[in-house]
Design a protein that fits this description.
The protein has ten helices and no strands. The chain is mainly α. The chain has two domains: 66 residues, no CATH class; 192 residues.
Length: 284
């Protein structure tokens, strides 16, 4: 009987010690997210060794049996490097995402007081809240620039956030009562910047969470998809209003409600992301 499932000599294996492998037949095999793919395949199919399998000629596992130990050693090294990299940037992500969470709380509170009602009845308070809202938009952008040291996409999101912050100051302070027609074109540019910012922020966060919390990473990626369609819905509704007013208004209503829900979910996800990275930092 063979010493291994693949037929190689377990006794003469030079990688056995480095892999800390107890052997695939007399032990559980090397536990790298399971164990040897050849051993797994044989156990699942009930073969005592690969030689008894009639499909081995076309089997990728069988063809790679010679290089399997080296492949698994490289896999261990890659996972160790990934873990070290995550441990390095986890404190940064945990700290600044918690700051983002606090900024969003304050920013949302000030935004509530920038409605037309407040503008008409409490103009001084409206102006203060508008300025504060703009300041926190800039602070938000600065945090994104800080996070760009972890993922380059945050820098693009930060540039877009700065554009929207400048737009906010011009709209609320320079054109308080009468917004010129040409400013609509600037609004369109800023709307595009919002979409670009969302694309880079959501996906950068998803990327950095891989290996930390894969489920949360997938949720960030899914949230971008919903955000994208809601933003497209708002643009589409403006065009539809001229062609089919009722449908246009309905699409606008659904899209705006969708954006509000996404912002709430984003708020929750930012907190969860901060906690996930802080947990990694605490475990070091």
């Amino acid at each position: 009987m063979a010493e291994t499932y693949c037929g190689k000599s377990c006794t003469n294996c030079k990688a056995k010690e480095e892999l800390n492998c107890p052997g695939c037949m007399n032990g559980p095999g090397m536990p790298i997210k399971g164990d040897c793919p050849i051993a797994i395949c044989c156990r699942e199919k009930g073969h005592s060794e690969c030689a008894s399998c009639g499909l081995k000629t076309d089997c990728a596992n069988w063809k790679s049996r010679v290089s399997q130990p080296e492949f698994r050693i490289e896999k261990i090294k890659a996972e160790a490097e990934e873990k070290a990299y995550i441990s390095e940037y986890a404190p940064v992500m945990g700290k600044w995402f918690m700051i983002l969470f606090v900024f969003m709380i304050i920013s949302n509170c000030t935004f509530v007081f920038t409605s037309n009602f407040v503008h008409e009845h409490f103009p001084a308070f409206y102006e203060i809240c508008s300025i504060m809202d703009g300041i926190f938009a800039i602070l938000y952008a600065l945090v994104l620039f800080r996070l760009s040291k972890v993922h380059e996409r945050y820098s693009i999101a930060g540039i877009c956030a700065i554009i929207n912050a400048i737009y906010h100051f011009i709209e609320t302070l320079a054109f308080r009562d009468d917004t010129p027609t040409w400013f609509v074109l600037i609004s369109l540019v800023c709307y595009i910047a919002m979409i670009v910012e969302g694309y880079h922020f959501f996906n950068a966060t998803s990327d950095t969470l891989m290996g930390v919390d894969n489920m949360l990473a997938a949720k960030w990626a899914d949230l971008w998809k919903w955000y994208k369609w809601m933003m497209i819905g708002i643009v589409s509704s403006v065009l539809l209003i001229f062609l089919a007013p009722i449908i246009g208004v309905l699409v606008m209503f659904v899209s705006v409600i969708g954006i509000i829900i996404i912002d709430i979910i984003k708020f929750v996800y930012i907190f969860k992301t901060a906690k996930a990275f802080k947990k990694i930092s605490a475990a070091q």
